[in-house]
Automatic annotation (TrEMBL):
PANTHER family for the chain: 4-CARBOXYMUCONOLACTONE DECARBOXYLASE FAMILY PROTEIN (AFU_ORTHOLOGUE AFUA_6G11590) (PTHR34846), BLL7811 PROTEIN (PTHR34846:SF7)
Protein name: Alkyl hydroperoxide reductase AhpD
Provenance organism: Plantactinospora endophytica
Carboxymuconolactone decarboxylase-like domain mapped to chain residues: 13-95
InterPro entries in UniProt: AhpD-like, AhpD_core, CMD-like
Length: 152
């Protein structure tokens, strides 16, 4: 696969500043880093973003995530590896990523389940992180950004 556009052309100083602010806001609300990484990986899998799947899995592994959990993210409902809070976050990520698949993009039961596990501030950060992940996925898929062949 060859990129349609050099991704560096998209990252102007004001864009980088805005992205850093989104990242900081999402990661400063007290959500476990592992939950944010799982959500990022799942949304990226759904969107077919090779760059984010690759980088997300590597970052999660570097931060202590187990192979069992990483290998099972796409089938999280059918595996015993995830906590109830992580399952709620993954369900929210899937619904928010697949908004057009249902008339009610994020049904109340999915939202309410997440709200049982996270504070309002954490929920806001989780929604922001899901949106940020989808933002990057759409840029990378649209411009055909390949995952690096060698991370060195």
């Amino acid at each position: 696969m060859q990129a349609r556009l050099n991704a560096a052309n998209l990252v102007q100083p004001e864009v980088l500043s805005a992205v850093n602010a989104l990242y900081k806001a999402s990661h400063s609300a007290g959500l476990p880093g592992s939950t944010l990484e799982l959500v990022h990986l799942r949304a990226s899998q759904i969107n077919g973003c090779g760059v984010c799947v690759d980088a997300g899995a590597r970052a999660a592994k570097k931060n202590g995530e187990t192979d069992d959990r990483l290998f099972a993210v796409a089938a999280w409902r059918e595996t015993p590896y995830f906590t109830d809070a992580e399952r709620a976050a993954l369900a929210l990520a899937e619904a928010a990523t697949r908004l057009a698949d249902k008339a009610d993009g994020v049904p109340d039961d999915i939202w309410n389940d997440a709200a049982e596990h996270f504070t309002e501030q954490q929920l806001a950060a989780l929604v922001l992180w899901i949106a940020t992940t989808n933002f990057f996925n759409r840029i990378n898929v649209t411009t055909r950004q390949p995952a690096p062949q060698n991370w060195g």
